[in-house]
């Protein structure tokens, strides 16, 4: 394992370079036992495909006893089949850390939800602005029928539209559905067509709802979770469940909802296509998702001497 030496103060965050975040870490990294990877824009390319290079790297790491853990904003059943079919995936961090799921035993290791009453309050706030929104509850997506029918106007691209249509069940009115079910909400997600409004809400929502976590995962959304539901907390809890230190984790990400796990892990890797704030939170910047950046960083840290 290569030591990560902090760069000089004016170092950039170009591909293949360590970043200033390494100043918060020990210079000597521990033996990696867990690799947690965001999916969209990280492990998967822009066409939502898993490259052969990335698949081969994951397969090799798993054969060496490293836990391979998808860490996604999606719920488990909403993950691409190509990921769910990987035979070595034993655990999944889903819904931004709202659930750590034991795949083999079909049970939740740990989770954190928004109380249903608080979720309704958030939705009442969102009703007053130009968005469509949904929620994840009990491992599935639901959306008011009227908003579901407007998805094409708000989806960022065809992939986003397909996910909304496929992974949400339309209901007559979402708030009424939640009030009837009276169970916790794993995530609320809003889609914007006005990016200035989105930027405004990224500042305003944390002030309106300081007990919740506000992040993003794609160019036009905002995601709202329980305060404890972060990918970083989930990596830490899963590491404890496995009897290892979080310093033995390596994490990969590209967007704001990945920052907590990049900061908590022994090695946090940002993709070349990540925004600058994400890169600054990482120890290392790899190639982008269309150039199998995951495989490149795994080779750099795990098998560099070959």
Describe the 3D structure.
This protein folds into 2 domains: 20-112 and 230-302, Rossmann fold, CATH 3.40.50.1000; 116-226, Hypothetical Protein, Haloacid Dehalogenase-like Hydrolase, Chain: A, domain 2. The longest helix is centred in the middle third of the chain and has 14 residues, at 195-208. The strands form 3 sheets. Strands 8-7-6-9-11-10 form a 6-stranded mixed β-sheet. Strands 2-1-12-13-14 form a 5-stranded parallel β-sheet. A 3-stranded antiparallel β-sheet has the order 3-4-5, covered by helices on one side. Helix 1 (52-63) packs parallel to helix 12 (293-302). It is built from 12 helices and 14 strands. It has 306 residues and is of the alpha/beta class. Helices cover 33% and strands 21% of the residues. Strand 10 (212-215) and strand 11 form a beta hairpin.
């Amino acid at each position: 394992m290569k030591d990560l030496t902090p760069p000089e103060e004016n170092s950039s965050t170009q591909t293949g370079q360590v970043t200033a975040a390494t100043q918060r870490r020990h210079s000597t990294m521990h033996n990696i036992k867990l690799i947690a990877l965001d999916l969209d824009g990280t492990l998967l390319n822009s066409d939502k495909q898993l490259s052969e290079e990335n698949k081969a790297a994951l397969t090799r790491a798993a054969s060496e006893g490293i836990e391979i853990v998808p860490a996604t904003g999606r719920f488990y059943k909403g993950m691409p089949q190509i990921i769910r079919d990987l035979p070595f995936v034993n655990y999944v961090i889903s819904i931004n850390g709202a659930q750590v799921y034991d795949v083999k035993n079909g049970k939740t290791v740990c989770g954190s939800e928004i109380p249903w009453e608080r979720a309704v309050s958030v939705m009442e706030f969102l009703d007053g602005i130009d968005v469509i929104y949904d929620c994840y509850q009990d491992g599935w997506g639901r959306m008011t029928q009227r908003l579901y029918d407007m998805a094409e106007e708000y989806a960022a691209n065809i992939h986003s539209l397909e996910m909304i249509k496929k992974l949400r069940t339309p209901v007559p009115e979402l708030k009424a559905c939640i009030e009837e079910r009276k169970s916790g909400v794993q995530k609320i997600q809003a889609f914007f067509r006005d990016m200035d409004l989105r930027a405004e809400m990224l500042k305003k929502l944390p002030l309106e709802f300081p007990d919740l976590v506000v992040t993003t995962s794609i160019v036009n959304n905002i995601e709202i979770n329980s305060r404890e539901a972060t990918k970083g907390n989930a990596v830490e809890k899963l590491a404890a469940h496995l009897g290892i230190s979080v310093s033995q984790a390596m994490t990969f990400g590209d967007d704001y909802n990945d920052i907590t796990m990049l900061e908590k892990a022994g090695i946090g890797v940002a993709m070349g296509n990540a925004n600058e704030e994400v890169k600054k939170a990482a120890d290392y910047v790899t190639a982008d998702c269309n150039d199998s950046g995951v495989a490149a960083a795994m080779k750099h840290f795990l098998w560099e001497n070959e």
